[in-house]
Amino acid sequence: MATLTTASKMMPPAMQRLIKGGDRSMIMMSDDIAMMKQVTDTHAPDGREVDVKPLLLLVEDILNRATLTASTGPTMGSPYAENMEDKGYQASFNAVLDVLSYTIERISCELSAKALTGGEAHATTLSICNMLAPFSWDAKLVLTLAAFAFNYGEFWLLAQIYTTNQLAKSMAILKQLPMIMEHSGALKSRFDALNGLIQAMLKVTRCVVDLKDLPSAYISSEAPALSAAMAHVPTAVYWTIRSAVACASQITSLTSYGIEYALSNCFDFSTRTQL
């Protein structure tokens, strides 16, 4: 969320009381503009073209499977499962990952490290944007979601199989998963909030990817409606990456600080991640 500028914080209380709603909105708008300038300043595309659609398909499959409800347990169904066995898709995955796996791993480490050290969400988001500077806006989104899915998918994979696989059970114990699953009912609201935000992140990412793929034969890039939509893409990218930072922090807090801490601290996405 936008914060008041440093200058406004230094104003005497009497002067601050004189700032009416409209003026306050102007200050917040100014902060938003400054924040987005920081984001766009990190954007330095080098002309590389990355087909992120196969990777997005894989990410959607992971995140749609990595879901838990207190009553039914992990969700097993996925509308993308039938494509996973297609050799053409598998070849596409391999080709993309040969080029992008290092970048995905770097972002994944950044998400985990900043969640553990309590890094400020905006600074972490900008750090990820800097890592992704050479990529197009849609690629930034898909790569960030892939990095998040890497950790989030591992969490739920262990949750789904640790009762029947000894290796998974030992790893799950290290991550305190049995205790977390035992209290999944008490944590339902947090899981529901996570899933809701993740689904929103997927929808935004799919929209940005689809926007870029609109055929020029049917719509000009200079069409007013398309130009207006594309103007909002950097903002959508920023908040989606920042949402991934928030979600990663929530999962890390569960596995790192323990269930007692989680149950006794009903913090939301804004407290640990400083949104």
UniProtKB/TrEMBL annotation:
<feature type="domain" description="Sieve element occlusion N-terminal">
    <location>
        <begin position="30"/>
        <end position="262"/>
    </location>
</feature>
<protein>
    <recommendedName>
        <fullName>Sieve element occlusion N-terminal domain-containing protein</fullName>
    </recommendedName>
</protein>
<dbReference type="GO" id="GO:0010088">
    <property type="term" value="P:phloem development"/>
</dbReference>
<dbReference type="InterPro" id="IPR039299">
    <property type="entry name" value="SEOA"/>
</dbReference>
<dbReference type="Pfam" id="PF14576">
    <property type="entry name" value="SEO_N"/>
</dbReference>
<dbReference type="InterPro" id="IPR027942">
    <property type="entry name" value="SEO_N"/>
</dbReference>
